[in-house]
From TrEMBL, chain A:
Organism in which the protein naturally occurs: Paranoxybacillus vitaminiphilus
Descriptive protein name: Uncharacterized protein DUF1806
Domain of life: Bacteria
UniProt xrefs under Gene3D superfamilies: Hypothetical protein YojF
One Pfam family of this chain: DUF1806
InterPro entries, A to Z: DUF1806, YojF_sf
Automatic annotation (TrEMBL), chain B:
Gene Ontology MF terms: hydrolase activity, acting on carbon-nitrogen (but not peptide) bonds, in linear amides
InterPro entries hit by this protein: BshB2, GlcNAc_PI_deacetylase-related, LmbE-like_dom_sf
NCBIfam families the UniProt entry points to: thiol_BshB2
Name of this protein: Bacillithiol biosynthesis deacetylase BshB2
Pfam families: PIG-L
UniProt lineage: Bacteria, Bacillati, Bacillota, Bacilli, Bacillales
Domain of life: Bacteria
Species of provenance: Paranoxybacillus vitaminiphilus
Gene3D superfamilies: LmbE-like (3.40.50.10320)
Signal peptide residues on this chain, from the entry's feature table: none
Length: 114, 219
């Protein structure tokens, strides 16, 4: 993956709009967060291969970036995104890597199930 | 000497930190070892330092790392059970136990190594250990293999006492560290940090502790 280039990511998002696509979305602080720091409230969420259709996808921010996808009846968004790749399967992978180099958030789109 | 050891953990690298020294010693003694690894650690947050993996390439990378680690440790029979990282606790418990029971029936181990259910921090660890205990409890008391559990939650010694087995594995520490390093995507950052701290940063790896699981109804 490489550091996000806003124009290129925006182009890629546009190419997934207005069609059925598969979504991977996760946030995580790791399963050990509360073990290493008992005062830490561990939370996260995960969806893999949710089928969505969005009319508008937009990347904003100065880095780390935010991406929002406007659905017919709702929204998908992620914040803290830093890196991206359009891989050989044509899947758009966006990730947020924390200060220790660990993945903290991921938003991914694919025309076929992951 | 054990007849056959069955190791059951949910993630590639679970075997490396806590038990690989013990396994290396058994393997060097000629004991066959089967490792049933439930997932490919698909949800790992470490991607290498600097990162060389991403969420979609990570499973295949970790599979290769696991195969390399098994070679180093001397695990000659690796079973990948195909579950998804971080989902074990949501699976059907009987089905999980069925999968483990089948491997127990096939390999007839004298010793099983897994996580202590309830005292192993990660939900996958606890669910994995619970599935193993459930599977072994299907056997009559006198036919059950010994189960050695790994535990490391903050409250574990308070609730289940001290580990009854403490093994010095310093004679094979180089191999153990090589096995840990084989899981490069997950351990590169950690090992770099330990190298920077120097001194006794890796001393804890020279000792491995286990709790022998006590069956209900046994003495």
């Amino acid at each position: 993956m490489q550091p996000i280039n806003v124009e290129e990511v925006q182009d890629a998002l546009n190419r997934f709009a207005n069609q059925d696509v598969y979504l991977h979305l996760e946030t995580t602080n790791g399963a050990y967060a509360s073990h290493h720091n008992e005062g830490f409230f561990s939370a996260g969420a995960y969806i893999r291969n949710g089928r969505i259709r969005f009319s508008r996808g937009k990347i904003v921010g100065e880095g780390p970036y935010r991406v929002g996808l406007k659905l017919d009846l709702g929204w998908v968004y992620a914040e803290g995104l830093t890196d991206w790749i359009l891989n050989e399967k044509g899947q758009l992978l966006l990730a947020g890597v924390d200060y220790e180099g660990k993945l903290a958030v991921a938003l991914q789109l694919s025309r076929e199930p992951f | 000497m054990e007849r056959h050891i069955l190791v059951v953990f949910p993630h590639p690298d679970d075997e490396a930190f806590g038990v690989s020294g013990t396994l290396i010693l058994h393997a060097e003694n000629g004991t066959p070892i089967t490792y049933a690894c439930l997932t490919l650690g698909e949800m790992g947050r470490n991607m290498g330092k600097p990162p060389f993996a991403n969420r979609e390439t990570l499973p295949l990378i970790r599979k290769k790392e696991l195969e390399e680690a098994c070679k180093i440790i001397g695990i000659n029979d690796l079973r990948l059970l195909g579950f998804r990282d971080k989902t074990i606790e949501f699976e059907d418990e009987e089905m999980l136990a069925d999968r483990i029971s089948a491997i127990i029936a096939e390999t007839n181990p004298s010793l099983i190594i897994t996580f202590y259910p309830g005292y192993s921090v990660h939900p996958d660890h606890n669910a994995c250990g619970a599935a193993v205990i459930r599977a072994v409890e299907r056997l009559p008391l006198e036919k059950r293999p010994t189960v050695h559990c790994v535990a490391f939650s903050k409250n574990c010694e308070q609730e289940i006492g001290h580990p009854d087995i403490i093994r010095d594995v310093s004679s094979v520490i180089d191999k153990k560290i090589a096995a840990i390093k084989a899981h490069r995507s997950q351990t590169e950052g950690l090992m770099q940090g330990a190298a920077k701290r120097g001194g006794d940063a890796l001393t804890w790896l020279k000792t491995e502790a286990f709790w022998t699981y006590k069956w209900k109804g046994s003495n």
